[in-house]
Amino acid sequence: IRMDNKATATEIGKRVQTLREGKGISRREFALSVGIPLTSYRDREMGRLDFTLAQLRSISARLGVDVDTWFRDLPRAMAA
């Protein structure tokens, strides 16, 4: 997924981080479990890079949520 708005990437990264931390999973452990190199995962979680759809699917499966969780209720300007 190409996110044209840095704010969108940042918000999605925050959502991933919040759910990951809520499950008590370290960033390192989680990155390994979803097959993303740690530095790349960290940059995505911090909104510096976009997650791909495949990555979001893997993350969703690991956290037990639907893929649309990451996009739900984004401010309209972010989702455009």
TrEMBL record:
One of its GO terms (molecular function) is DNA binding. SUPFAM superfamilies: lambda repressor-like DNA-binding domains. Transmembrane segments: none annotated. InterPro entries: Cro/C1-type_HTH (IPR001387), Lambda_DNA-bd_dom_sf (IPR010982). Residues 16-70 form the HTH cro/C1-type domain. Coiled coil: none annotated. Gene3D superfamilies: lambda repressor-like DNA-binding domains. It comes from the Bacteria. This is HTH cro/C1-type domain-containing protein. The lineage of its organism: Bacteria, Bacillati, Actinomycetota, Actinomycetes, Micrococcales.
